């Protein structure tokens, strides 16, 4: 099958490396130089100290007309509006899969309601090392659920595809909320405190902060069971103890973070319900301040 991947970040490259083993993959990048690099040399995947290279096609997204039936959109949430604005580029696409964090972007997806639209949650550890190299730092799974239409062309992605497990879920809202809770608690705290995920559990004062933030977040998100949600946060923190969160990495590399999509979304839910969330507000502002200092200065 022909598969398109919009975005040449860590997730886009990871998908290209695994799906490219069995399918014809085209990566659509923001920078023409990255597209050239990928088309000439392929995607390099580093796992357990070994590197494998997978050939892919690549071209810049700007001005492209995608003709793959199945396309994954892997750009960060704050870049999604620009991608969705190029709606004509997707005219021939039948099935779109969106892999953004947070939930604030869901309204934007309604412009594609005449297609099969899926959303997904990536639980793999992936680190982009350069424009064509990605390290697979933790094997997890990709969970997908249909949001508009059916699973469409995504049905052809078999579970366990090339060592890259794919799981199917019925309830798209549930998978996104569950991921949002984890990201809302772990990411901003690790980024602010400049620690690996595991430190949040090891140090009693950090664990306390984690619990306070969780207690506020769970008040405004539609969770079935808050205790299980807390257990999930702790479990993922433990499982990824040795990782730096994506928000930590964004700040460390002077990049914009996804704080608006994650805690910003939670705060908006609080406002809509008339619930004040002082801890979440404090953490949100602290990350915004740090982000501004690092991105601008
Ligand atoms: O965004 C991240 O870094 C990850 O989703 C997670 C699970 C918090 C682990 O670092």
Automatic annotation (TrEMBL):
Its EC number is 1.1.1.169. InterPro entries: 6-PGluconate_DH-like_C_sf (IPR008927), 6PGD_dom2 (IPR013328), ApbA (IPR003710), Ketopantoate_reductase (IPR050838), KPA_reductase (IPR013752), KPR_N (IPR013332), NAD(P)-bd_dom_sf (IPR036291). It catalyses: (R)-pantoate + NADP(+) = 2-dehydropantoate + NADPH + H(+). Pathway: Cofactor biosynthesis; (R)-pantothenate biosynthesis; (R)-pantoate from 3-methyl-2-oxobutanoate: step 2/2. GO terms for molecular function: 2-dehydropantoate 2-reductase activity. Keywords: NADP, Oxidoreductase, Pantothenate biosynthesis. Residues 171-291 form the Ketopantoate reductase C-terminal domain. It comes from the Bacteria. Residues 3-145 form the Ketopantoate reductase N-terminal domain. Signal peptide: none annotated. It is an enzyme of class 1 (oxidoreductase). Catalyzes the NADPH-dependent reduction of ketopantoate into pantoic acid. Belongs to the ketopantoate reductase family. NCBIfam families: apbA_panE, PRK06522.2-4. This is 2-dehydropantoate 2-reductase. The lineage of its organism: Bacteria, Bacillati, Bacillota, Bacilli, Bacillales.
